[in-house]
Amino acid sequence: AQYFDYVLGSDSVTRHKPEPEPVLMTLAHYGVAPAEAIVVGDMPVDIEMAHNAGVRAVGVSYGNATREELTAAGADTVVDDIAEIIDILK
């Protein structure tokens, strides 16, 4: 709670990944439009969820799926280091 002001887990939604509900709830909470957001994920289901919500999907190659799996799932880009996301946001 000290570091996160909004936490959404599987018990917070009725329709789980790859459904867009988790992303849409988060966007609504912060008042952000899908075009203004990205979803960062390490699994193909994260990529699918992002696209189902109309949000760009960034895969991270150092998680549970390979770069190839994330690309095949339709990731808009795949990064090898979390710091690379800063460049995407510029």
Task: Provide a descriptive summary of the structure in words.
The chain is of the alpha/beta class and 90 residues long. It is 34% helix and 13% strand. It is built from four helices and three strands. It has helices at residues 21-30, 44-52, 67-72, 84-89; strands at 38-41, 56-60, 77-79. Strand 1, helix 2 (44-52) and strand 2 form a beta-alpha-beta unit. The mean pLDDT is 96.
Layout: helices, strands, pairs:
Blueprint: H1 21-30, E1 38-41, H2 44-52, E2 56-60, H3 67-72, E3 77-79, H4 84-89
Parallel strand pairs: 1-2, 2-3
Mean pLDDT: 96
Q: What does the radius of gyration come to?
A: 13 Å
| Uncertain segments | none
Number of strands: 3
Strand-residue fraction? 5-15%
Structural class: alpha/beta
Bulk shape: globular
Order of helices and strands: HEHEHEH
Name the strands of the widest sheet in spatial order: 1-2-3
* Terminal residue distance: 28 Å
How many distinct helices? 4
Structure described in brief:
34% of the residues lie in helices and 13% in strands. It has helices spanning 21-30, 44-52, 67-72, 84-89, and strands spanning 38-41, 56-60, 77-79.
